[in-house]
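Quick one - inputs below.
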Amino acid sequence: MARVIAYSDALGEATVQAMERDPSVFVMGVGVDDPGGIFGSTRAPYLRFGDARVFDTPISEPSITGMAIGAAASGMRPLMVHARNDFLLLVLDQLANHAAKWSYMAGGRLKTPIVVRAIIGRGWGQAAQHSQSLQAVVAHFPGLQVIMPSTPYDAKGMLLSALSGDWPVVCIEHRWSYGITGEVPEGYYTVPIGEARVARPGRDVTIVAISQMVNEAMKAATVLAAQGVEAEVIDLRSIRPWDVEGVCASVRRTGRLVIADTGWTTFGVSAEISARVSETLFRELKAPVKRVGLPAVPTPCAPVLERAYYPGADDVVRAALATMETGDAAVASDSDAAARLHKPFHGPF
Amino acid sequence: MTNQHDALLDLYRQMVLIRRFEEAAAKAYSQGKIGGFLHLYIGQEASAVGALSTLTRDDYVVGTYRDHGLALARGMSARSCMAEIYGKVTGCSQGLGGSMHFFDAERRMMGGYGIVGGHVPLAAGCAFAAKYRGSGEVALCFLGEGAVSIGDFHEAMSLAALWKLPLVTIVENNEYSMGTPLSRTMSVADSSTKALAYNMARDRFEAKDVLVVRERIGAAVERARRESLPTLIEVQTYRYRGHSMSDPGKYRTADEVEARKKDDCIANAERSLRALGAGDDVFARVDQEIEAAVDDAVRFADESAEPGEELIEAYTYA
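Output:
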């Protein structure tokens, strides 16, 4: 049986292997050299390479990001880490106006292959400014790639893809992912950016899930199967570019689509997927597309409100049943069950 | 002729090239051959020419949207620059960048940027890459005094000082950020004093004499190269034209502009060259040479093909 490791260790291993292969890879960000090591993910690189190649930075995200972009255009491969993806908003000018456009404006003669890791916070006390899920904001810009691996295998393979590719990549990680364990080969491998993964095959309804919602979708699929509904769960993995063909191929078979995203539905990634699938497969859809995501409000702090705010497996079940036109509130709205499905909160960052 | 004469003549020739090139670009703009933006450098030539004359071919140059002077001083061809402004496929970025975004990877002309001040961290990144590799290059970053008020500038200065990056940051103070005079944008008159907060070396001087620019910037470049230390420099200069072609410049008087033209960097260089023995024949030859080069660039841009639509998506992923 293949080796089983945690998501955070898979990221660390990918970083070490990229740094071993390519001397131009370095890691920087607030706290990357800390013993905590960004949920443990930068600990192995720091212990292996020391502060010459894994180093702490001032709280100065815009200039650190800009510096990484300039260094990338000068031949380096910076991997930078923002402990919260909320801070991506501070660096959006650098990402959107510079990283995304530099190569294009130079007629393709310069590359800016930076990789930015950013974390989605979730848990009691994270509140509105440390918990956002901003993939739609970043994915809006042509020239940026956005990945959201949900498994340890993909975390390693996709980070290695990002660190060997030509494009600026933003890797958005859910903080609940770090403890997830799974089979991960010890050697170097890459998982291509832009290809979705069928996490569970099924014939009745396609559930496209993103990041932590993949786990919710898998739990939902189990519940649905008990009711005779075979859901196909697709882990989107890559937000931009996203696997239009793979998703459409599944929906063509099932005729039904539910999208479960960690972000807001309004103007969100789920809106984009819904639009593209509707444009492509309008006549083959047996039911309107359903979306599961955050309500259009900031994140509340109190745990009871938080539980109501975040969607879970039960919401996915309800959405899937709605597409089957057999929606049954008795099955779907057990909020206690939803709370039990959520992992407990393990301390502050 | 002396070495000093030859060196100055070379700088003089570059300054005249920039001025004639931009005059031709302005003409083409008024003829409708160029659209969009055209930010002219006329009046400021000594700054780019003097500064870039201190670099090696591997050093990095990062600038603003007012980038024609930098590009030409960096040795980019007048043809590829003019064609880029025209939006032709033969331009330095195949027409994808335009007037504000000149690039030449080979000459490490790392671009002109349209986000005011947003490029300063990028230049710090070029300097960081050089330091990380230990390859010895220096990065030169140009910005206007208007950009000193934006956060990215300060963050980049803070980082450059903290990490001792080989970065020379040149604030070209032409007194107006678009139409707003410096007194309305900064609480100090001398932007180089911002270096004090970062414990960074600084300098400030007028860019009326290209040799002075060369000497002073040269000292900062040496500091960056030998000691890996950054410097913030304010170069006091003046643009004769508006912020861009669409700016009639009504925020200042014609008298003010005329008075400043009397202390012109090209005219000053000509005087110095005459003092070193250059005669009319020398200037006639330069004029003739530059006129031919600019005419050639305009003809080249006029006659070059438009980019094909396949270029729209050629340099991005699916």
